[in-house]
Amino acid sequence: MALFLCLMVSSVAAAQERATANGTLTAVPGVKVGQYTLSERPTGCTVILVEDGATAGVDVRGAAPATRETDLLEPVNLVQQIHAIVLSGGSAFGLDAATGVMRFLEEKGIGFPFGGVHVPIVPGASLFDLSVGNPRIRPTADCGYKAAQTAGTGAVQEGNVGAGAGATVGKTAGVSHAMKGGLGSSAMTLPDGLIVAALVAVNAAGDIIDPTNGQVVAGARAADGKTFLDARKLLRSGGATPAEARQNTTLGVVATNAVLTKTQAKRVAQMAHDGFARAISPSHTSGDGDAIFVLATGRKPGEADTSRIGALAADTMAEAIVRAVRQATGVPGFPALRDLK
User: Residues near 140 by Cβ (< 8 Å), separated by ≥ 6?
Assistant: First the structure.
């Protein structure tokens, strides 16, 4: 009997270790992520699949959004479950990527059945990265389809991939002082089995701040090209021009295994924006289309504490933002953090 109990404890411990080993969005069961990168520019798209369906919400804070199907996510509207979210570069052109994801899901018979076909619900958003490389190269429906084909449950690749491939940060002193952004992800698994995870494509006008110490991690560079001007100081001195830095938008996705209603999912999305505010300065400017989507798979039964999940979402989102710039690599005209060392 003692041996049996020992084996049971070991099995549970091993299962918990496997569950926490993946510290990215796909730590949430039922969530898959696929990416496609057009390295010749670079730009790309990131696809989050929830093929069994998930409750979703969204909160758009930036003043220059490029979005698709976000009205469906309002709590008063009919649709209760979605099947994918698409984040892409390419500005409004990049919204085409979602069409390819719809085609992929329809071929698999995923979506709401109607008249012999299936209609997948695929909201999306795009960020402005046309200033990096050839602006005529941008994600298409074919890119979305290929990203969906690669979707899996393994740890999400970070840095210069998918929607983060052409992302940049630190433009408050002009694009010539900017740095490379990217895609980052983070997840936490709590002792009670709750999982809260985030994925983000960081293409901000502002600097990236490490909330643990308040220091600039990446952002507007000084004349030496290696030290930081610090957008917070620039704003106070009148030397920053965030209104002119219109080539931006940070896009995030929060996923949880909790049971949430659409109203609760929207509340979590609103709270998750605190992660943007902690790790990006300034955030939600008139030149950003900042948006956060929330997915709730409902695989952890029981009543959810929305305030707790929202607070954890903000923490996880801030960590993912910092990871995005730490994992990025430089491209011509936009050095990465690792290039400054």
Answer: 96, 97, 100
Check: CB of residue 162 under 8 Å from CB of residue 60.
no
Neighbours of 13 (CB within 10 A): 10
Kindly give, in sequence order, each residue whose CB lies less than 8 Å from that of residue 120, ignoring residues fewer than 6 positions away. 83, 84, 101, 102, 105, 106, 110, 111, 112
Task: Give tens-digit pLDDT for 55-65.
Answer: 999 999 988 89
| pTM (global) more than 0.90 | yes
Domains of the chain by start residue, with CATH: 23-340 (3.60.70.12)
Which pairing describes strands 207-210 and 215-218: parallel, antiparallel, or unpaired? antiparallel
β-partners of residue 17 are none
Q: 206-260 pLDDT, tens per residue?
A: 999 999 999 999 999 999 999 999 999 998 988 776 544 568 999 999 999 999 9
